[in-house]
Amino acid sequence: MSAEEDVKDDDLHQRLHAMETKLRRLKQSRNGHSDNARSYASQRNAVQAQRKELQVDIDERLSEQKKIRDAGNIQRTRRDGIQEQIRILFERSKAGRKHHNKAKSKVVQLAETVGDIERISLRIETDGTLSLEAENKMVKKLKELEARRQELLPDVDEEARITVDLEDIEGSIQTLRAEADAAHQAFVDAMGTADEMWDALKERFEERDQLSAEADRHHQAMLDERKKADEFHEQLSALLDEVNEIRDELNQQRLEAEKWITDHNESVRKARSTPDKDTDLAESLTDMLLSGGSVTLGGTRPDDATSSSNRGKKRRRRSAGGGRRAGN
Q1: Neighbours of 84 (CB within 10 A)
Q2: What DSSP designation does 291 have?
Q3: Is 298 left (phi over 0), alpha (psi -120 to 50) or beta?
Q4: CB within 10 Å: which end of the chain, N or C, has fewer?
Q5: What is the CA radius of gyration of the chain?
Q6: Are 33 and 232 a contacting pair, CB within 8 Å?
Q7: Is the Cβ–Cβ distance between 121 and 142 less than 8 Å?
Q8: Which residues, 6+ apart, have CB-to-CB distance to 176 below 8 Å?
Q9: In angstroms, rounded to a whole number, what is the distance separating the alpha carbons of residues 150 and 126?
């Protein structure tokens, strides 16, 4: 590898180390904000649980207060109906009975209808001077009144119903006055109790509102921490992509360096190899011998060997002749 490549490799390693250090810091920051978000969420849930329990108690108290107010309103309706009936009785005692049912409340209409039914029923049972025709008319009237009574009953609460004895107007007025006073007092007492309950409920409402505000604060803090965690996560993801690119590049350089070393070692090995250590050559020679061929060692061919032998014989003959000549 060249010096330039070594410098580049060192630079990549330094950049990678710096980025990995920054990655760890970003992870710590992200995880810290995530932990904070979970903590705020847990606090929010705990406060909301308290608020829910308090709301259940408030709903139960409101329901009870509504029942008391409804009962008081019934007594008010009864009081108003009695007072209206008292006025009617006064008018009746002065000028006789007048039929203005449309202007009368249903409470009063029911009271008069029931009074008429009782009066007619009593007369039919006790008056022996009635003719058959008169009695039949009274029975017919009684049926009409009973039908009217059944029509009015669903519209008038049982507690609001009053009874009037039209045969004793003065006594009925006194009785109705007492009933009106009692109904009014029951209404006042019910409203007082309902108001006291409302005063107690106002403290509950304030406590509930405080818990709601606290839960909202925890929820907003959780959202803020999650947002910060997401921001750090985005930075972390972007930086991680760069880190992976550098790692891939360093890995590629490592693979190339390993290949270069492998190729270099193989080249050196081949350069230092001799024929007797050449495994492929030995296997090739063995195959030639087994197939019946001839093998020449030392690098000479068969013809070269024959020529060399003949040259040797000629040299020996020359040498012998020259000896003989020397002897002569």
Answers
A1: 19
A2: T
A3: left
A4: C
A5: 62
A6: yes
A7: yes
A8: 82, 85, 86, 89, 162, 164
A9: 25
pLDDT, tens only, 235-258: 888 888 877 877 777 777 777 777
Rounded Cα gap, residues 263 and 316, in angstroms: 55
Give one DSSP letter per residue of 34-80, joined into a string.
HHHHHHHHHHHHHHHHHHHHHHHHHHHHHHHHHHHHHHHHHHHHHHH
Residue 159: strand, helix, or coil: helix
Residues 161, 163, 166, 172, CA torsion sign: negative
Confidence check: pLDDT of 158 > 80: no
Ramachandran angles phi, psi of 209, nearest 5°: -65, -40
Structure tokens at 311: 């040259």
> Which ranges of the chain would DSSP assign to H, the alpha helix?
3-95, 106-126, 132-152, 169-271, 279-290, 302-327
Residues 6+ positions from 67 with CB-CB distance below 8 Å: none
CA–CA separation, 131 vs 126, rounded Å?
13
Rounded Cα–Cα distance for residues 277 and 295 (Å): 17
128 backbone dihedrals φ, ψ, rounded to 5°: -85, 0
Contact 106, 152 (CB under 8 A): yes
- The model's pTM is 0.48
The per-residue pLDDT for range 78-122, each reduced to its tens digit, is 888 888 778 877 776 665 544 444 456 666 676 777 777 777 777
Helix (H, G, I), strand (E, B) or coil at 273: coil
